[in-house]
Amino acid sequence: MPEPLTAEPKITRRTRREMPTDGPARARLLPAADHATLTWKNGGGTTREIAHFPSGAGMDDFIWRISLAEVRKDGPFSEFGQVDRILTMVDGAGMELTVDGHKRLIDTRYVPHALSGDAPTACRLLDGKVVNLNVMWRRGQAQVSVAIVRGCRALSVAVGAQSLVVALDAPTTVAGLSLSRYDAALLSCGEAELDTAGAAAVFTLAGA
C-alpha cells in the first residue's frame, strides 16, 4: 500500500506555461459558511465542497475536487473510477481503513494519506466522528500535491496552475486575505505570503 504523503513531489520538468510568474497572486476568498453541503456519491454521509474544476462539474465529470467530509459512522467510502485522492484527517480521534483488503490506521491529524479512488475502502471509527479534508483528481488529467504548513511560507503559483489554501485550526492570512477555520483562498498566477498561527493545508493544482 502507498505510504502517507508528507511532502510535495519533486518537480522534474516544467513547460513554459507552468513557469512561475512575477507579481502578486490573484486571490479569491471561499468562506466556510458558503461551502455547499452535498451527499456522498454512495449516500453514506455528507461533504462540504470547498472548490472544484471545471465550474459546474458534478461527481462524475470533475477534473479536481476539494471538500471536507464528515464521517459519523462505520461504512464504505464512495468509489471513483480512474480517480486518485489524498485524505487528511483534520478533526476527530481517528479511523481504521480497509483499503482493497489491507488495513491502514489513520489516527494523527494533519498527515496526508494517498489513496486510490478505485480501491474498495471501508472505514471503522476509533472514537466518534472524524472530519477529513479530501482532494480528488482524474488520473492523467491533473497533477496535485498537498503540504501542511505551519508558520510562514512564501508561495509561488505558476502560470496555468492554481493553489488553494485552507485554514485548519487557527487564524491564517494569505495574499492579504484573513481566513478563519475552514475558510479557503484560491490563488492563481503569482506570489503570495502565507502566515498561520496553527496549521494550513496548501494544495497545488496543475493540468496534466
Describe this structure in words.
The protein has strands at residues 26-30, 36-39, 46-53, 64-71, 75-76, 83-91, 95-99, 102-106, 112-116, 121-125, 130-138, 142-167, 172-174, 177-179, 184-207. By secondary structure, the chain is mainly β. The strands form 3 sheets. The chain has a 6-stranded antiparallel beta sheet with strand order 2-3-4-11-6-9, with no helix packed on it. A hairpin with a 6-residue loop joins β2 and β3. The two termini are 24 Å apart.
Write out key terms for the chains shown.
0% helix; single chain; 208 residues; 5-stranded antiparallel beta sheet; 6-stranded antiparallel beta sheet; mainly beta; globular
Average pLDDT, rounded to a whole number, is 89
What string gives the helices and strands in order? EEEEEEEEEEEEEEE
Structure class: mainly beta
In percent terms, what proportion of residues is strand?
A: over 45%
**Roughly how much helix do the residues carry, as a percent range?**
under 10%
Shape: globular
Write the layout of secondary structure elements.
Layout: E1 26-30, E2 36-39, E3 46-53, E4 64-71, E5 75-76, E6 83-91, E7 95-99, E8 102-106, E9 112-116, E10 121-125, E11 130-138, E12 142-167, E13 172-174, E14 177-179, E15 184-207
Antiparallel strand pairs: 1-15, 2-3, 3-4, 4-11, 5-10, 6-9, 6-11, 7-8, 7-10, 12-15, 13-14, 13-15
